[in-house]
Every structure is written in C-alpha cells, then in structure tokens.
Amino acid sequence: MHRNRLGRTLVGVSELSFGGAGIGNLFTAVSDEQAEQAVAAAWEAGVRYFDTAPHYGLGLSERRLGDALSARPRSEYVLSTKVGRLLEPADLGGDDLANGFAVPATHRRSWDFSAKGVRSSIEESLNRLGLDRIDVAYLHDPDDHAEQALAEAYPELERLRAEGVLGAIGVGMNHADLLTRFVRETDVDAVLLAGRYSLLDQCGLTELLPLAHQRGVGVVIGGVFNSGLLADPRPGATFDYAPANLQLLERAIGFRIVCERYGVPLRAAALRFPFGHPAVASVLVGTRSAAEARDAAAMLHHPIPDALWVELKERGMLAADVPTPSEVG
Predict the structure, then answer these.
(1) Is residue 56 flagged as an active site residue?
(2) Where are the beta strands (DSSP E) in the chain?
(3) Over the stretch 146-164, which tens digit does the pLDDT of each residue have?
(4) What is the pTM (predicted TM-score) of this model?
(5) Which of 49, 56, 154, 197 is catalytic?
C-alpha cells in the first residue's frame, strides 16, 4: 500500500489507516481474538498506520493494539494516540455504554489539557501500548478547552517531540474551524479531521485544507462514511451517530445510484474521495473485524473511472470547485 509523508515530517503513513475505536468495544463488544484478527488482516492488506486513544474503551483499544503489534517490526508501522482525557480509577459499577463503549466502568474520564496532564497521559499510553515512543500524538477533541489546549497542552507536546518521545504532534476533532485555528496559530505537524470532508460534507474545504496545504500540515481524514450513511444508505442509517434525515438519505442514495452505474461501490468512492485534495495523507477507517479490514482495503483499491467524478459535478452533487481524485497530478 502506498505511503505518504505526513506534512513536513519524516513520518510515512499508509493511505488507509486503522481506526482503533472498534477494538475498544465501541457500542458492542469484540473479543481479544477478534481484535487481534482485525489488526492482522489490516497488516496483511498493507495498512501501516494505526490510530487509537485512551478514550476508546477506557484504554482497552490501546492495550489490544499494543499487544497485536508487539511482534511486528517497530520501524515498519506508525502509531498515533491522543491526549486530553485522563483515566482515573473509580469503582463506578456497570458499564461505559453512556460514553459509547461496551466495557466495565472501571475508570472515570477527566478532561485535562494541562501540561502535567498531557505528560501523564502520554506516559500512561506508553505503558498500555508497551512502547517507548509514539509516532503521532493528537490533542483529542479540545472543543471546550481551546484556550488551555493552546496555552498548555500544545507547548507540552512540543517539548515531548523535542525529547524524542513523540515523532509528530497534531489535533484531532470533528470541527474544522478550531482545527483551522491550530494550524494558523501553532506549528502542528498534522490534523485529524473527522466527518467534515466526505461526499456529503465538505466544510473542511472552506479554510482548513487549503491552509494546511499552504503551511505543510498533513491531514488525516476520518469519518468518510459519516458513521454509516455513506456505507449503506437506507432508512435508519446514521449520519454523525444520529438517524439521518430524509434529505441526507436521498443525497446518499443519489451518490449510490451514480456509483452503481459505473460498477463502483459507494464505499469505494467515499474512501477515495478525500485524496483529491493534496493535503490529505491518509484516510482512517474504524475497524472491528478482519472482514471489515479486508473490505476497507479492497474498497480503497477498487478502480474508479474519472467519468464518475465528472458526472457527480455535472449533476451538481459535488460543487465545481471541489477537488476530486480525477484531477490529481
């Protein structure tokens, strides 16, 4: 699988990246064996960029990913995790489904974008992962903590990068406006934009992607299926984790109809679309099984004729100024 440099860094990420929320038991539980098989299938398909976070299953995703990658050559893969939520032991009882994860509620999440909190978070992640360095660390969802993240968390990530603990630093969230501010006001290496650069939502194109390209900041795109609607548009499908309204459903079905005319699965077009923009280095897909890992890789490599992108613009389904893969190079 082709690798791209992440912005100005020497970090090389595979075009397809493995999103680790699923193996942290997002919504439903998977076994340790299923998690191991998902990582193994992704590796066999050529994936060499794996993303996780303490938030995912109260550390379960980090532990499983560290275990699954422990026998792989460390120089051959890139791993990212995130800071901003500390896990504090707490006897809460029950499960963590209120936060989206089917795991026992053994810890409490505590928002912490202080310098001390960031360093503690990285140390704890290294322990769970069984590693001595992290390739990319993202500030995770600093939406309501922007000032502290800018003033305290970001400078601490810079210090950790200078110490060699981190290879690259960035910010990950699903709001393009605040990511744009980080790109403008800091020296981040990368941003992870979730759900805001897809066939259905291109608000990341307004400012963020052009500015990132101008400043040499690498972009990883998550949420290309918008939590399900662009994977399988049908009544009851979700958009950003809520039931899609009729207008969105009709738009998604329209994309599927055009894709089918060219023999292209909608999933394939959704996965390939972000690479029309030169700032995009990788597309991250949440993966919870070997079948999903193999399907994502197959969809990424599925041939897509340029005429498909042309027709989407001619029909007004994509704006004329939206870059498409047919225009790359």
Answers:
(1) yes
(2) 3-5, 12-14, 16-19, 49-51, 78-83, 85-89, 95-96, 101-104, 107-111, 134-140, 166-173, 190-194, 218-222, 238-239, 242-243, 280-286
(3) 999 999 999 999 999 999 9
(4) 0.97
(5) 56
